[in-house]
């Protein structure tokens, strides 16, 4: 199963700079890779043997790309793990939190029950999505590592970091050894490629892939109020016209939370980060249709169909606009689709769906496959816990949909955190608040298409996945390490994003993109290309 990661080993230089400012210490002092992280050495690592857990049968069977769907939670869920995974001693974990920071453990009955079931007190240090990378960089620079570490996928120079700070898990996970942890073995082998560095396995994947594939999400209820059902624009012009129809500035309503330039690029067949053809790599920045995409995006901004605060506010604000009906469209993923329902449990009229992407003039667009991993979970070398204990905890966190462990991990305790509607766990307000402690970032199973009490949600999700599966475009850089990409990607991407924003806001001409691409190439883009081509050649046939 080929899956993509978006700039998996990108820069994260802003976070590193923040850490230097706080601690006076470079992020990777003493952690620089010894350059032995050759692509061939990584390719030679025997990945965990994929052993699918077959106890649960989906209502909507998936494929190696389309996710399994369930119309209801299985009755009498299987209790899949009988052994308490913890060792009785506190386990520390640092993570991001996508929603509001939940109540502390002493005021959180879900967290207390987690500790009881784990057999160890789980001490979690949390930060919001917007703040986590800076907090992570500061902790790394200060050498103050928890037992379990959520490593963002765009952290610079991950090979040096994990070699210096984290446990080598190869002997525990390579090949059939992973069968000792059946729910880690239930994660398809391809996702483990993003956990291999320095010729060894240094972490556990938090898989995303298809669940992170992003297209135009829309508020079904808001469009229906305008008499629009199942919107399916056939080209960019119809896509643009639909946006104008859903915009009413005097009513504080706009079509889009942000400029849908990724969607426009998919309409034009622009690559998903990097394209490979005959061993030669080319970047999305260089594609001949980029200026056409920028001009189309500029037209949308000039027409006023984008929330005017889109260039100033953070991602959390965009979610609030979509939740609150200020915007009808948002470019986001299947994970976000579910999160929107979680954020709106009190509104029975709230509805979300996803639009396919058309070709710019006609036909079908080429959607981008989502990033393979949310994060890599590694274990500190300095942890007083054994690798076996921490892997048992990760295995418990990866128990899949349909098990009793999954039901508890995602929904909590019946009566307090959810009520049963048939066999479906319907979250209570307390449940929504207390369960969001970030367990999914220790480990997780691949996403199941499901929403409690709303069988139409997985049906819609499964249908759109089936529709786009054969057209997905993959990032050719996945699983290939480029040292220059690791060090410079964040700054290079920021420079190109800043230029993009200037162009679409009409502050610079579309023609400025060509000069920007030349600057990108000389500042590191060409070197990244060369390193990716070499890594690809080194892994050919392996």
TrEMBL record:
Q: Give yes or no: UniProt keyword Nucleus.
A: no
Signal peptide start and end residues: 1-29
Question: Keywords in UniProt for this one?
Answer: Signal
Gene3D superfamilies per record: Periplasmic binding protein-like II
Q: In which family does this protein belong, per the annotation?
A: Belongs to the bacterial solute-binding protein 1 family.
**Protein name per Swiss-Prot or TrEMBL:** Extracellular solute-binding protein
């Amino acid at each position: 199963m080929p899956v993509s990661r978006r700039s998996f080993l990108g820069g994260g230089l802003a976070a590193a700079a923040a850490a230097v400012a706080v601690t006076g210490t470079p992020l990777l002092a003493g952690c620089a890779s010894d350059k032995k992280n050759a692509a061939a050495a990584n390719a030679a690592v025997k990945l965990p043997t994929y052993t699918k857990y077959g106890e649960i049968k989906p209502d909507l069977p998936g494929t190696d790309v389309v996710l399994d769907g369930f119309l209801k939670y299985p009755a009498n869920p299987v209790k899949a793990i009988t052994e308490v995974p913890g060792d009785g001693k506190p386990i520390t974990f640092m993570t991001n939190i996508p929603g509001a920071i939940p109540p502390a453990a002493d005021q959180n009955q879900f967290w207390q029950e987690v500790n009881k079931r784990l057999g160890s007190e789980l001490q979690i240090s949390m930060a919001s999505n917007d703040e986590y990378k800076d907090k992570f960089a500061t902790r790394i620079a200060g050498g103050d590592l928890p037992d379990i570490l959520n490593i963002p996928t765009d952290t610079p120079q991950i090979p040096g970091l994990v070699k210096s700070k984290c446990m080598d898990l190869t002997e525990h996970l390579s090949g059939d050894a992973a069968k000792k942890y059946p729910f880690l073995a239930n994660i398809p082998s391809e996702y483990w490629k993003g956990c291999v560095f320095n010729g060894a396995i240094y972490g556990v994947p938090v898989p995303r892939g298809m669940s992170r594939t992003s297209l135009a999400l829309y508020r079904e209820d808001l469009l229906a109020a305008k008499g629009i059902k199942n919107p399916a624009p056939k080209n960019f012009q119809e896509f643009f016209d639909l946006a104008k129809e859903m915009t009413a500035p005097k009513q504080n309503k706009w079509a889009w939370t942000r400029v849908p330039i990724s969607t426009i690029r998919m309409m034009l067949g622009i690559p998903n980060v990097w394209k490979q053809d005959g061993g030669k790599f080319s970047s999305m920045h260089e594609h001949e249709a980029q200026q056409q995409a920028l001009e189309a995006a500029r037209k949308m901004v000039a027409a006023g169909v984008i929330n005017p605060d889109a260039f100033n506010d953070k991602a959390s604000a965009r979610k609030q606009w979509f939740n609150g009906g200020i915007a009808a469209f948002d470019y986001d993923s299947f994970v976000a689709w579910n999160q929107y329902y979680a954020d709106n449990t009190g509104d029975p009229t709230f509805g979300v769906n996803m639009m396919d992407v058309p070709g710019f003039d006609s036909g079908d667009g080429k959607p981008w496959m989502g990033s393979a991993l949310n994060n890599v979970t590694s274990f500190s070398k300095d942890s007083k816990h054994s690798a076996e204990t921490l892997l048992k905890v990760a295995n418990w966190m990866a128990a899949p949909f349909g098990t009793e462990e999954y039901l508890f991990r995602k929904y909590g305790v019946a009566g307090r955190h959810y009520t049963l509607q048939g066999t479906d766990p319907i979250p209570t307000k307390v449940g929504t608040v207390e369960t969001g402690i970030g367990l999914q970032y220790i480990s997780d199973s691949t996403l199941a298409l499901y929403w409690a009490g709303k069988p139409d949600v997985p049906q819609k999700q499964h249908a759109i996945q089936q529709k786009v599966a054969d057209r997905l475009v993959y990032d050719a850089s996945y699983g290939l390490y480029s040292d220059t990409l690791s060090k410079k990607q964040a700054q290079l991407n920021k420079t190109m994003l800043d230029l993009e924003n200037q162009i679409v806001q009409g502050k610079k001409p579309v023609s400025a993109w060509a000069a920007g691409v030349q600057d990108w190439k000389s500042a590191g883009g060409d070197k990244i290309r060369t390193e990716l081509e070499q890594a690809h050649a080194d892994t050919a046939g392996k």
